[in-house]
Amino acid sequence: MSTFDDYVGTFDNESGYLNWAAFGPLSPSVREEIFADADLLGSGRPSSLSLVWERVGQAQELVAELLGAEPADVTLQPSSTQGLMHALYGTTGAVIASTAEFPSVSLTLERASAASHRALTPRWITPDDGRVTPDVVAEALDDEVTALAVSLVDFRTGFRADLAALRELIGPDRLLIVDAVQAFGVVDVDYTAADVVVGHGYKWLRAGRGSAFAWFSSRARERIAPVLSGISGTAGLSVDELLAPTPSAQAFTVSPPDTLAAGRLAIGVRDVRDAGVAAIEARIAEHVDTIVEIADRHGIAVTSPRERGSRAGIVVLSPEEPARLAAALANAGIVVTARGSSVRIAAHAGTDAATLQQLDEELGAFGNETFTSS
Ligand SMILES: Cc1ncc(COP(=O)(O)O)c(C=O)c1O
Fold it and tell me: What pTM, to 2 d.p., does this model score?
């Protein structure tokens, strides 16, 4: 069996789970290894503690490997929002972002702007279809713009931004700050087009909360002030002297990382690295094709992108009666995210045929009911 097949075989969550864009049930390897790490921490022995501390370096190395970056430039964070805080609170000038971004981007940008007394100003864009394309960014671009903050894969529309094209548009002198929460580990792109990339382990990496990271390129480290730098952002711990932030990416940290979370992140990233991100992306793309085909066949509108290059693992259905569809799926034990007028479906590489079959049956029953009652 190939490593990819091994990986697919590790999905032991209940059938019907199609909510990977919200939360990824923990993988067996994360669950097993975390117990071992917890036992080591339970001993109190310095050698055991330092063994678990090695997880920090492992996580940095593995995240860096997937990003094509240097491990020292990867910081471990309690959440991706905190990673974005480090990036945005230290930035000045006009920062372009869509008003429809996940609040980790939009709210953080607004708060950072207020804290800076408007030395940082949001340059909001509101694309009609919520898609941050080079064309809509170009319209907002002027000399005051210092950065663009964007989700690589949008949590709501499922749209995958074109990082290379956005970089080409904004040029080398502006920062590209990327929220890769809905992409990291399942989308094979060149992250080095970005300057800051944040992500976390609790969705597609199946590693649980608290396991986030933020990567800062050399350009980011030169231009972003580490205003939220804390005790782990200095070269050592000093009581009498107030040390300056280190000139490294670690300046963008507050306090030493949770080693259990670092372990979970390391294991989650190791598993996708071993399986191959490209292979995972290809399998998810097949599932997305199937889900779109099922929705089309049952006459339910799909509003997420259809072209493979513009999407990742998120399919958005916009049925005429979203609440009724959400209730029908929930009653059938199919787990999705229902929000307003849409139902978000997110399959992973290990989503089984039975789950897709179940979805087919439920959408079929829903479509027919709509037909007979109209
Ligand atoms: C695109 C995006 N960014 C950020 C977050 C929040 O991440 P965290 O909980 O690590 O701050 C989410 C959570 O759903 C998300 O979808």
Answer: 0.97
